[in-house]
Amino acid sequence: MGNRMKRQWDLPLSREEAAGVAIAVGTMLGRERLHLLYDLAKAAPDGPAAEVGIWWGGSLINWSFAREGRGPMYGVDLVVKPEARTAVEYLMRPVELIQCNSWDGVYQVEKPLAFVFIDAGHGLGEVDRDLPAWVPHVMPGGIIAFDDYNYWKPTVIVNKVVDAWQVGAKWEMVSPGVVDSLIAFRRPV
Questions:
Q1: DSSP state of 175
Q2: pTM of the model
């Protein structure tokens, strides 16, 4: 028995394993959205990646396994919870956590960005500030994803803001389209 046992997170993780870790850490995303998020992060080109709105850090940790060694990774939130810091440190994720307004976080990350996941505020004065702050910094071929797109509640305006932006931007919707409430687009090359 001379083989050294490795902890699960020392190994490259599949999307299923990464989703399991994310759920254990804490996330509001279900397994299907976590799988898509992992796939999107993996499909994006090499370069910096960021999540805007990290809550406990589960979804950030999930996609970070798909981007290991492909560029700096960031998690931005108005309040970075101690649980998120603990999870990032314990799981040894190479992610820099930034505490500030979500739309100001773009000034503290390396650019251009290969992958961005926006899951911060969903109301007026929030997502409508995040989208124009982050979108211009996505590199050609890069991917931006939005959560709560398909979430129908009067105070959630993600659909309205994303649809209005997409009318002019005409970025390619990344297959398979909307999964639960997650939608993603690739910037034209």
A1: T
A2: 0.93
